[in-house]
Every structure is written in structure tokens, then in C-alpha cells.
Design a protein that fits this description.
InterPro entries: Fmt, Formyl_trans_C, Formyl_trans_C_sf, Formyl_transf_N, Formyl_transf_N_sf, Formyl_transferase-like_C_sf, GART_AS, Met-tRNA-FMT_C. The protein is of the alpha/beta class. The chain has nine helices and 17 strands. It has two domains: 2-199, Rossmann fold, CATH 3.40.50; 204-301, Methionyl-tRNA Fmet Formyltransferase, Chain A, domain 2 (Roll).
Length: 306
Amino acid sequence: MRVIFAGTPEFARVALTAIHNAGHEIVAVLTQPDRPAGRGMKLTPSAVKQEAIHLNIPVLQPLTLKSSDIQQQLITLNADVMVVAAYGLILPQAVLDMPKYGCLNIHASLLPRWRGAAPIHRAILAGDSTTGITIMQMDAGLDTGAMLTTETIAIADDDSTGSLHDKLATLGGTMIVETLGQITELTPVPQPEAGVTYAAKITKAEALLDFNLPAQQLARNIRAFNPAPGAYFLAQEKIIKVWQAHVVDQSGTPAKLISADAHGITIACQQQALCITELQPAGGKRLSAAQFIAGPGVEFLKNTII
């Protein structure tokens, strides 16, 4: 099958590799323009572009798909289908209608729950017990198209956005290959009207831990914002990122230090307490609680309102 692939980050790269390994002819890859990254802010190609170059697939990086020039280029590719995964550009109706079998999206949630930009983060933040992948026939709406297939996976108690991302990326790659192989046999099913939620883009401000919230919520926040943007709190106006923590059945004045030892740094919350086991001071490296308190960590936190 002749495939145009549109995607940008690692989640999409996994699907691109799976489609290639399945023997489909990927006639072009669409991906976002190179962006500055790293300490030196050097222009860096997306994960999808790097993989496409490795696989010797032509790459297109338009700023928009609305121009007649790029649309004409896509028409000449004579694709059977376009597969889209975390691409980052809106597909106009002319592009949606172009391939023989339309445009298929690999979406990292069980639609209609968590339509939008950050379905993995939002599922963890909300305390969902399950999530999954939906392969969707795209339309002009925001993740509103009819569903071709879905598969559910459990969200483990210790899943972070990073670990859940990897599970879903692998599942998405497997499912899109299966879908392409059965595309003439599948019947699109409209999404139900009930249960619609939206996964708004994550902001750095959301990652600030508020110890006036229940510890259970903060533990979810820490997992949801790992690896990016990283949950954090302020101590003496300095940022301390938190990478690992769990809930303990203790109480005290919210935002006050309860204890600090090799097992963790425990801070009181509105309900219960949060025991932090891995953290990172501003400008420093990740440290275990034991490493942190071996330095000036305890005095830094002691009697300080976080």
C-alpha cells in the first residue's frame, strides 16, 4: 500500500518504523520543521525526520498544508492512505479527501475521552485506570472522526507519562499495521456523544505542586509531568523538581516538612503526606532523598513553607 506518513515526535516515529517494517511503500513523510533544541539551541530534526532519513524516505516539512503548492505535491504521490500521528498541523479538507482510503489517525486515548493535544498526561492526572489507542478515520474536527479500531491497556500505579507513552507508542505501531492490512474490511463507527473530554496542552505552570491539595493528586501530578515539564515546588524561592514520590498516611500543616531521612523527604499535604524519594535542585542533577539530605538539603527545607 502506498502510504504518506505525517508525524513529528517519538510516538510517531515508532509507528513509521512499524509501517516500514511491515513492507508498505511509504512514498513521503510529512513532519514539522526543524526546531531549536538543547543547551546550544541548535536546529534539530524531529524524531520522525531522523528515522525517514535513515530509511531513505523523502521528507516534506511545510509550514502549512493549506497552500496549493504542497497540496499539488501530495496529489502527485498518488497515495492509498495517509497515516497521521502527533503531526502538529491541521489537515484541510482537500488533504483529508486526497488519499484513496482517506487519512487515519493514531490517537493515544480511548475516544471520545481525551480528544486533543495531551491525552497521556491528562489520563494520569485524572487518575484513569485504563487508556489505549484509537485508530480513527480523520475528519475536519478535533479528534472527532469515526473509529476503526480501539484497544485498551491498564495504567499501572507507577506509570509516568514517559512509561505510558512508550507502551502506547508500541501498541499504536502494531495497531496501525493491522488496520492497514484490514482496511477494506473495517467499518468506521461514529464516536459516542457521551463521555467527551478534552486533553488541553500541558503548561509549565500546571507542574507547580500545591501542597494544599491531597497527596494522592500530587503523586499523580508528579507521574504525569515526568519526563516533561517536570513537577516542582519552591523552597526559599528556588525550584526543586520532583521525579519520584509516593503517598504516606501522615498528617500535618500543609507544605510543612514532616521528616527527612534516607527513605524519603515527607511533606504534609491537605490530605495525607507526600514522601519524595528522588528530586533535583535547580542547576543540579537528580538525587535520591538520601543524597539530598547528605548535603545541605534538610536545613534548606526545614521549617520552610514550600
